[in-house]
Design goal:
With about 400 residues, the protein is α/β, with parallel strands linked by helices. The protein is built from 8 helices and 18 strands. Pfam families: Amidase_3.
Length: about 400
Amino acid sequence: MRWLALILSLLLALPAWADPARLDLGGSALVATGRGWGGPRPLELRLSLTKAVPYRAYLVGDPARLVIDLQDADLGMARPQDLFGANLASAIRWGPWRDGWSRIVVELPGPYRIDTAGQQARAALSQITVALAPVAEEDFAPRPSAVAALRDVPEPADLPDPGPDDRFTVMLDPGHGGFDPGALAEGESEANLVLVFSLELRAALQARGVDVQMTRQDDSFVALEQRMTAARKARADLFISLHADALPQGQAAGATVYVWNPAADSRADEQLVTRHGRDDLLAGIDLTGHDDALTGVLMDFARTDTQPRSRSFASWLVSRMSLMGIGMHGRPVQGATYSVLKSPDIPSVLLELGFISDHDDRANLLNPEWRGRMVQVVAEAITGWARDEAARAAMLRR
């Protein structure tokens, strides 16, 4: 009992700074502080903490991001998407970093500069405020490399230098083909338009050092299940299905990115099990001999990793489209139950380049200049996301 009393007295004698600062989500926010006048709006990030802590704030590029490192701070179980004003940023991520630090990364809707950054401490509360002002692209002055800044390593090449079995691979999936032309409008077919775009995107990605595979390279039909199986056999790191659908006039226009919504169809796992051999469902995991319930559990477990990564890539795409002035749907990222998004082990998105039924979208798809801009957008999103994934993997290994 005397030892217990001694331990308790020592714990009670610990100074207040022994407890980490905690984030008060209710008192924190990302707010717009002015008009954008056709471009990004001035922003202010306010972080409410239970006490003052050492911190640093800086900008990185590709894409533009605000990084805030907090020493001796516990962000707890708070979710970035619950931050008030989170919709003003393309994406927000946070969590423990290393050596007693936590990190917050805010993906910005364009190039910015840090106008002011300060911390105001009160009795039981501290607020860090970082004010951001939009700037022209040529005036954007981030740290030399996003990956170098995030990882504290020397400047890398465009993509990590992979080994023969670890090369970053993208599977491009031009929708439809063969006897299935997809949507039709004014003598143009969706299958042909997305194939032309995919071939142009492949050339741009290969020039950037990316290994590109395609589900089809000509006007041929490939079954939906075979498209996913081809991606798995290629050990693809990312699967992008490309489309240009049609809807009744006036119902939809602009580019849209779809990700798998696991809550949208409870039968998805059952359908996937039926359509594929079990040993084809998860790369490296042979499910032969296991019942449907276990198969579904394993796929759900795999999706806990791939789903956030799919959403992350969708955010990269939307961010780059915004920066390049690409017209987007009113809701640029949406959930769906398309078959090509069901793969539990490969981050996957379906990109509607536009709607062939819309006059302006159709004109864009036929315009080499617009396609060139869109190719640049998608290529930059892929390489930027790949660098982010490499940094993420490296931090997980630490």
